[in-house]
Write a structure and sequence with these properties.
Helix content: 25-40%
Structural class: alpha+beta
Strand content: 15-25%
Distance between the termini: 21 Å
Bound molecules: zinc ion
Largest sheet: 3 strands, antiparallel
Amino acid sequence: MKFLCVECDRQMEFEERQLPGDGTLAAAFKCPACGRVVAMLTNPMETQLVASLGVKIGGRTLEEQPMETVRSMVATGREDAFAEQDGERGAGSGPIWSGEAQDRLSRVPSFVRGMVKRIYADYAKERGIAEITPAMMDAARSELGLEGM
Ligand SMILES: [Zn+2]
């Protein structure tokens, strides 16, 4: 998947973006010349699909997208919708990840790993679960409809 900045005729660079909890994913592509950002938003089911393709996104070449598709995805000043994420990391109050759970998380494509991690962490927090284990991940997946993540 490639996005071209229409005005600069430059290929946009992949930037990973995430939204919390609700399974929504945003992938952003930024023009290195003018800084314009195009964002792709997906619902949880589409996110799953993207997760299975995730390793290819941002580096390698997928199909060219018709410009109309790109135009329809151009984010309109929603840049700061993502900004709130940055302060959240390193708060240190989240649940513990067991070694096995960490192994499993490490197999999630990096493209969506942060989002997946947050979904499980939120799930654990909401239920007062102190340690995230593969069994808990299974329970969360079936309960949240995230099979495959
Ligand atoms: Zn540009």
